[in-house]
Design a protein that fits this description.
Layout lengths: L1 E5 L3 H13 L3 E5 L2 H10 L4 E5 L7 H11 L4 E6 L4 H9 L4 E4 L6 H29 L5 H11 L10 H18 L3 E8 L2 H8 L1 H18 L5 E6 L2 E7 L3 H17 L15 E7 L7 H17 L4 E5 L5 E3 L5
Parallel strand pairs: 1-2, 1-3, 3-4, 4-5, 9-10
Antiparallel strand pairs: 6-8, 6-9, 7-8, 10-11
Helix pairs in contact: 2-3, 8-9, 9-10
Length: 327
């Protein structure tokens, strides 16, 4: 594999480069974001390891430029504990993964590369299958339908993925405005998920996400859209649902999750797996899906700031209320 390593710290990029070279990869080192971009333009790399804070061009800016050229390259952020929030933002923009430095275990670098290689192989295999299906469209019409369904589903949880959730939100907001109908949005964040992953590993974390998806699916209606928004974040688009009904749904889901016997749940900071939920409902002041999502996002941020494991309803930029727990 051709791997590009960008970090303004010579010691870090040299260490990562040496580890990956020992694994048999062809490694190119870059001293900052601009240097990395120039080297990427000259030669395509399947994987990029990049520091998030660099002079001239940040890791997130580098990610954006590379994603304009290709979606295939697997981008791995290297960050300190203080920049984890920025790393999560990078994941939302298309980064594959992030690792924390200083490295407690050097194997974390090799493991991240191996996961990226596996993901890239899966993407290439899927592309090959899709190309084959397009050539055999008449004979394999049924299989084509199944693959289209897979394209809007999250591979881990089976829920709708971010892109489909985004499309559905735009459609439902347009419909609610056109016909003056109720519409609510729940923004759901799994509390302390990084703590869980660090303590019990990614496989255990994946099991929690899968079980959480099943729990929430059972709590929603056929008319609702439940999507994995990214990482440990989910949204529920609830048509024909007013403020009170949306808050009741949020509290019902929050309570079910808190009471569910997830493995290792008792070792979480609160003693159980919990959710922070932000709720927003369509009103005259909301012109589009982006504004509705912004209110719900503000509400979930307030919920986490206020101690997590709670629902917050956001009516406007300045007006937010904690929702009383249901019995």
């Amino acid at each position: 594999m051709n791997i590009l390593v960008a970090d303004d710290e010579l010691a870090i990029r040299s260490l990562v480069g040496e580890l990956l070279t020992d694994e048999g990869h062809v490694v190119t080192l870059a001293e900052d974001g601009e240097d990395a971009l120039e080297k990427f333009k000259k030669e395509w790399h399947e994987i990029v390891f990049s520091d998030i804070r660099m002079p001239k061009m940040t890791g997130i800016e580098l990610l954006g430029e590379i994603k304009k050229m290709t979606e295939l390259t697997q981008f791995i952020i290297m960050t300190s504990h203080a920049s984890v929030d920025n790393s999560i933002a990078a994941l939302k923009k298309g980064a594959f993964d992030y690792i924390l430095k200083p490295f407690d275990d050097l194997e974390v670098v090799v493991d991240a590369a191996n996961r990226a290689i596996a993901n890239l192989s899966a993407i290439r295999e899927q592309q090959y299958l899709l190309n084959t299906l397009s050539r055999q469209n008449e004979e394999l019409g049924t299989l084509n339908k199944k693959f289209r369904e897979l394209a809007i589903r999250d591979g881990l949880t089976g829920l709708f993925n971010h892109r489909h959730g985004e499309d559905r939100l735009v459609d439902e907001v347009d419909r609610a405005r056109k016909f003056n109908r109720d519409l609510s949005l729940l923004f759901i964040d799994l509390d302390n998920f990084k703590f869980f992953n660090d303590k019990h590993g990614h496989l255990a974390g994946d099991e929690v996400l899968h079980s959480l998806g099943k729990l929430m699916s059972g709590a929603t209606r056929d008319a609702d859209t439940l999507a994995r928004w990214g990482g440990e974040e989910f949204i529920i688009i609830a048509p024909e649902t007013n403020e009170q009904q949306a808050c009741q749904l949020a509290e019902s889901i929050r309570k079910q999750v808190a009471e569910y016997a997830f493995p290792h749940a008792d070792q979480q900071p609160l003693g159980y797996v919990s959710l922070s939920i932000g709720v927003a409902t369509m009103s005259d002041g909301i012109a589009n899906a982006e504004q509705l999502l912004k209110l719900a996002d503000k509400a979930v941020y307030r919920a986490k700031e206020s101690g997590r494991n709670r629902t917050v309803f956001c009516r406007s930029e300045l007006e937010m209320d904690d929702v009383l727990p249901i019995d």
